[in-house]
Amino acid sequence: MSSSIYDHFLFFRESLDDYHDRREKLIKASRDITNISKKTIFLLHRLALEAKDASARISASQAGLKKLHEVQKMYADMKDDLVGDQFWRYQRQVSPGLQEYIEALSFAHFLENGKLVTYEQVQATLCGADGVAYFPLTISDYLLGVSDLTGELMRFAISGFGKPGGRSRALETCNFVRNCKSDFESFTPHVWELHKKQAVTAQSLSKIEDAAYTAVVRTSEYDLPPEMLDDIVNQTVLSYNRNDRKIERGDDNGEEFNEPFH
Amino acid sequence: MDPQTFENLNQMLDHESNIREKIREQVNEFDKKTRTVVGILSKIHSTHSESIPSLIETARPVLHSCSETIADLVSLIPPNQFWRWKDMWCNSLRTAVFAAALSEYLTKGTLISLESTSNMLGIQEKWKDRVHLAVEDYLHGLITMVNELSRLAVNAVILGDFEQPLKISAFVKELFSGFSVLNLKNDTLRRRFDSLKYDMKKIEEVVYDVSLRKLVSKDSPVKPTSSE
Description:
The complex is a heterodimer. Chain A is an all-alpha fold. Chain A has ten helices and no strands.
């Protein structure tokens, strides 16, 4: 091999190796970020479900945001690999984790403010102390990330349905998700992956709508404020639980149940 | 979403699709030119080797004119966004690399370097963050050239030129060992690299046929193709 061709290819090897190494590194980081973000979402669900009032929801949100600092630190570490035009080279590797992070962030934001986190607010969390962005946030990552929020809100609304105030919250959430869906609709021609997300959002929305429907129909039967209805339901649940425990302790009932198996 | 945010996002998205539209127009232009060049170069298969240099000369002006389209392209790309848009034109660019490399080999018998290819297409160093010739695209262009040369080896024999296959064989072997230096991942470059061995096999068979039948005169000088 003539030395010049060899030298050229050695240079190409270096450049390709460098690219592959960075790519791998960013894929790993992106996976870790996805992981932390998913855990944060679970954490938020747990805390939000236990939360009895707005201030408890705010502290749930704070706990989630605190966990997301880990992610922000990881992005700070990644910024050197994503400097200048390099971000666009690795955008496909970075974007899955980023979308998951935005989903978690938007959920925390919703719990605290009842609003959709804005594009600028997300970008602001991805800036160093000097205010310089680690990398430019793409609109498609932002939209795809917040679009996943609707699925979380569906879970939030349905699982909190039986809790005090859950019904009115389901109605609020229903409106919020409906607005999201109609806002995102006009973006879909520009961001093609959004089509699929919109379909999922539509599913989530119809689940919340069903729940909200139930809420309205049932409360309409009683001319009582919703808090009192909650109390009635709660008392029934409590007394049922007490009876239930008595039954568990009782001797005859248990044996009756076991009979078919003997 | 409040109306202002909504409006901002929509404007940003509109701006992006405007850029995309304009790039697409230029890429179409670029594509037309590279297709014309490839059309001219495809005549090498039916041209005697002594007329090939003049055939290549007719392709050169079109190839050079690609630099105008590339300059127009550069003016559309926002700073630092080379990698964002490059997929849109990389096929045309790879074809241009192929044409440049094939022309260089058929006129000088040497491998064109990445820098010379870049210069030939009028790509300037200062455009680095908007348009440059990436290693990957250059290598893709070279592989296309080898694919073409394996056909040329066969067709040269049809035209009665028995030396061409031997020259091609030496050149391609050298290029192949260059590619063997690379650590390729399982991507398109890797798959295309894998295709090289079939080209090598085809060329070897032609060399075998012409040598065995003593169609090449012993004293015909087959020099190592790379003169550097």
